Input
Amino acid sequence: MEIYKTAKQMQERSLYWESQGWRIGFVPTMGYLHEGHTALMRECRKRCDILVVSIFVNPIQFDNASDLANYPRNEESDMSVCRKAGVNAVYFPTPDAMYPPGYRTYVDVHEMTSILCGASRAGHFRGVTTVCTKLYNTVRPAVAVFGEKDFQQLAVIRRMVEDLNLPIEIVGHPTVREKDGLAMSSRNARLGAQDRINALSIYHALKNAAVSVAAGEFDAGKLISDARQTIEAAGSAGIDYIEIRNPDSLLELERVEGPAQMFIAAHFGPVRLIDNMKISA
Ligand code: PAF
Output
């Protein structure tokens, strides 16, 4: 497995692969890799000749210094996960190499980044779209795979790729869950034992909403207040949002009369978790 630490080396290698007519597939990550990431790698592997994974905890997408400092990291285990998954190359830049002194350029997708996670995490999506643009220009993928757990991120990336005419196929992969239903996330590692149990209420709230819709409850306000009760009763340290939106436009819905996705962000102990689920038939 090849490992590249600078954009120049990575880009030169990608240009070579392109010159050979090989299709580059890309899975961008912030490391602390788990089964959710390997599922993305497997999906990507099916669609490319050369599989590249980036590992970079992107400082500019964190709105909170302690969240960035506490983000879990394990380089050795990440490399071993990538090796086992048959990754051809890992791009592993340092923050200074990514954003050297004098760095001034950012990519902004408007409107859809000021709702949901964008409302409570100032500058988060600007950080994501900026780093993804830089990663795309370096790795030069024909296809990139993202998890649907970060549903809004996937929608924002799709928008950006279309708006900027980037020649990349964006593929969404269904959320990978633990056996009990908790969405896999690198952040789960920071949950204490009791918070880990309580955090499952997010999954239960989503499932209950889907069951209620199937049973004929279409009022978004009622579905949201039921979900809120479930999560509060489990001792959440705070709910950022519970919303029901159209999965394509991300417009907020008052009634579930067509495609509908419920989105939740809630804190358990020191950890902020997000999840979402299709609740319409
Ligand atoms: O989803 C993530 O892990 C990050 O937001 C991403 C896409 C790697 C950009 O830093």
Notes: The longest strand covers residues 238-245. The beta strands are 2-4, 24-29, 50-55, 89-91, 143-147, 169-173, 238-245, 261-268, 271-278. The radius of gyration is 19 Å. Residues 33 and 81 are 7 Å apart (CA to CA).
